[in-house]
Amino acid sequence: MDNTTSTETTKLLTRLESEPLDWPFPLDLEQAMMLLVQHQSEFPAKIREAIRAVAIESDNPLRIAKIYDTVKSLFLYTPGDENDNGEEAQWGGLDSQIDTEEEVKLAIRFFKFVLRETKSFDGEGSFQPIFCAATSLKSLPFVPLLAELGDNSSSFQAKERGGILKASGSRKGSVLLELLTNKQLLQHELIRDEDFDRKLDETSLQVLIRLKEIGLLKKDDIWDCIDNILFEKPSRTEKRLRFLIDWNPTILKLQNITGIPHYQKFHCTSLLEYFLHRRGNCLSFDDKWKRFQTLLEMGMFHHPEQMGFLFDGKDGFFGRSSFKVACEIFENERVMEGVNGIVLRGFNERLPLDGLFFLTRRNPTAMISLLSKAESKIKAKTSVKNVNSDKGNASDAVDIYYWNRMDILPSQRSVPRLLFDSISPMIEMVL
Q1: For residue 410, what are the domain limits?
Q2: Structural domain includes residue 374
Q3: Does residue 42 form part of some domain?
Q4: What is the pLDDT along the chain (431 residues), one digit of tens a residue?
Q5: 3-class secondary structure for the chain?
Q6: Is residue 167, in this structure, part of any structural domain at all?
Q7: How many domains does the chain have?
Q8: Is residue 384 part of a domain?
């Protein structure tokens, strides 16, 4: 697009900004038609076709209405729409592989009212373009743009955040819920293999990231998001779950989190415990195991001092640690092997004593032997630090001090990196 065209487009958008929102067409229909013909190459492909089709109808003063019908069909199209013969139509909605954001933005700016149009979806409720866009992988990438323009144009109430929190129908929920669960999208997808699941998860993740960047997805939404996604199939929700937890890792211990019901706070001490005890968990055995591994790995990464909350909960409402519950669900050996692998991958500098005990419990003789050797190295290193205490980092000496304080609970102690290095060969042997 050359500079002249760019300038004209800017003037056009400025002109359109002054038009009333409650009227679907620009006030000067003839001038609007001239602008449409002049800038037709800058609109989405299906709108370009409509403009070319009616451009020759110079004697029809309402020919722009035909273009608007195409615009409305483009933004309200959903999978399963049928043509006049009752047959499933060729895809007639927004397509991220064909249409660009600039083209879609121009169409919305020219026909602002389209954001307020509605349609009945599967015979229920009235759904606006932003919800329709969330029901297909082809149009899904346009959801943040529709939300941003809807928020800026006051098409929605402030609490609806551009439409992503607007309730749509009695059963289908909000756009945000659809972005998390993809319920409507999955109903109309005939081929759902692992590649599709990965693409759906990645595309939905990018939409959530964009909504976060433009301020329409907020930190206070995280609990509701996680609660809706936690029990969905891991192969198509894994990246979204990790994104939400990384955004606010405190969600893993269910403390000071907005939106968590009081009874859930009282019953569970961690997200891991909540997952293991949640009733109505309909995941398959393998999917439940994958989700358990993810939560444990994320917990160990963000809260290594608490072993990812694996041993929490025994003093809580249920009277059993998450480790014990997991062993009852998945069997001891599987849980132990899984935790071993996560621990060895997840720790860099410190390993809690509970975790050390877990890893070495099956070979105590080897543990005693190696600890004896490690003690000599620690004493030698401590002597050097005492002589050169003003030259080095005394963090290891502090760890040794706490190691020798018998009044400190095992879960509160940590092992110096030197000690872990000494026993790592034995850990590998045990595993």
Answers
A1: 358-430
A2: yes
A3: no
A4: 455 545 655 665 565 555 544 556 655 777 788 888 888 999 999 999 999 998 888 777 678 888 999 999 999 998 877 554 545 557 889 999 999 999 999 999 888 889 989 887 666 667 899 999 999 999 999 999 999 999 988 788 889 999 999 876 545 579 999 999 999 898 877 677 889 999 999 999 999 999 999 999 999 999 999 989 999 999 999 999 999 999 999 899 886 565 565 545 557 788 998 899 876 678 999 999 999 999 999 998 888 778 788 888 766 567 788 888 898 999 888 888 888 777 666 544 444 455 555 555 544 544 454 455 445 544 555 554 454 444 444 334 433 333 343 333 333 334 444 444 444 444 444 44
A5: CCHHHHHHHHHHHHHHHCCCCCCCCCCCHHHHHHHHHHCHHHCCHHHHHHHHHHCCCCCCCCHHHHHHHHHHHHHCCCCCCECCCCCECCCCCCCCCCCCHHHHHHHHHHCHHHHHCCEEECCEEEECHHHHHCCCCCCHHHHHHHHHHHHHCCCCCHHHHHHCCCCCCCCCCCHHHHHHHCHHHHHCCCCCCHHHHHHHHHHHHHHHHHHHHCCCCCHHHHHHHHHHHCCCCHHHCHHHHHHHHHHCHHHHHCCCCCCCCHHHHHHCCCHHHHHHHCCCCCCCHHHHHHHHHHHHHHHHHHCHHHHHHCCCCCCCCCCCCHHHHHHHHHCHHHHHHHHHHHHHHHCCCCEEHHHHHHHHCCCHHHHHHHHHHHHHHHHHHHHHHHHCCCCCCCHHHHHHHHHHCCCCCHHHCEECHHHHHHHHHHHHHHC
A6: no
A7: 1
A8: yes
